[in-house]
Amino acid sequence: MENRLIPSVEAPPKKLEPAWWFVFMSDKMMVAEADEKISVPCFTNQADIGLEPIREWYLGTLAGRHCYCAEISESASVPDNMAFRGLRYLYGRLEEFLHRIAMKAVHMIEWDRTTRYCGYCGMETIRARGMIAKECPCCELLIFPRISPAIIVLVERENRVLLARVKRFTSELYSVLAGFVEPGETLEEAVQREIEEEVGIRVKNIRYFGSQPWPFPDSLMIGFTAEYESGEIKIDEAEIADAGWFDPERLPTIPGKISIARELIDWFVETRSKEKGIAPQKERIYKPNE
Ligand SMILES: [Zn+2]
């Protein structure tokens, strides 16, 4: 089976065969739980299991089977054997290819929920044909899903990594720095600005690392590595609680595996530990439990 969504906006005219349903109640997704195995439910029609979605989008096909996302109201009754779980909780518990589609599904639902009316004239929007978009029947404004680019960057200084604890984190979690790209900025300028604003240092050799959709609610994380150039750490006290340079073998508590932040830190630990000829330290990972 090819474990990849083939996206499409052309939904079949009728629901006649079992399909994957990514159904949300607020930001939690409905999953079938049996014997510690978690899966996305498959059924032909919502009515079959007593669901009445308040919004629904067709996503495409997965291994020849149709995929839909939908939202049900918070007062809806939940079918037996189904539970609602957050996507962070489901990471590592749900098969990865299904989790990736779930990340797309939650983004689509949030976008649909927040674009019911035209932002320009206030008229109720309708679906545009042949694309993932809505349009205003009055002023013809087209509304695409909002995707907010944010940079995330691992800064290195003589085999040590810059990690910071952000004030809005309630835990003792330390991570690499991140921030939204501003209008008129290149990604590299956003990297340089964020680091200067948050910890007061300059960096050089900014290099692309990879990217990750992060639909909480609509970000695209664009990862970089960079090297320290000049300055001493001076934290922005409004945003940052603490920041410092850490050896790969003496890291504080770091993010769980779902995030590109963790991928960056893992890359650093692996490559630098090898250089120093030491074994990477045992994991101390923040585990979300909702
Ligand atoms: Zn309008």
Mean pLDDT: 92
Number of domains: 3
Q: Report the structural category.
A: alpha+beta
CATH homology superfamily name of the largest domain = Nucleoside Triphosphate Pyrophosphohydrolase
- How much of the sequence is in beta strands? 25-35%
CATH architecture heading of the largest domain: Alpha-Beta Complex
CATH fold node name of the largest domain: Nucleoside Triphosphate Pyrophosphohydrolase
- How widely separated are the two ends? 31 Å
Q: How many β-strands, per DSSP?
A: 17
Number of helical elements = 4
Shape: globular
Low-pLDDT runs: 282-290
Provide the descriptors you would attach to this structure in a database record.
single chain; 290 residues; alpha+beta; Nucleoside Triphosphate Pyrophosphohydrolase; 8-stranded mixed beta sheet; 6-stranded mixed beta sheet; 17 strands; 34% strand; globular; binds zinc ion
Please describe what this structure looks like:
By secondary structure, the chain is of the alpha+beta class. The protein folds into 3 domains: 5-113, Nucleoside Triphosphate Pyrophosphohydrolase; 115-146; 148-276, Alpha-Beta Complex (Nucleoside Triphosphate Pyrophosphohydrolase), CATH 3.90.79. It has 4 helices and 17 strands. The chain has helices at residues 87-90, 96-113, 187-199, 260-276; strands at residues 5-7, 19-25, 28-34, 37-39, 42-43, 55-62, 65-71, 82-85, 126-127, 134-135, 142-143, 148-157, 160-166, 177-180, 202-214, 219-230, 240-246. Strands 1, 2, 3, 4, 5, 6, 7 and 8 form an 8-stranded mixed beta sheet that branches. Strands 12, 13, 14, 15, 16 and 17 form a 6-stranded mixed beta sheet that branches. It has a 3-stranded antiparallel beta sheet with strand order 9-10-11, with no helix packed on it. Strand 15 and strand 16 form a beta hairpin. It is globular, with a radius of gyration of 22 Å. The protein binds zinc ion. Residues 118, 120-121, 123, 136, 138-139, 141 line the site of zinc ion.
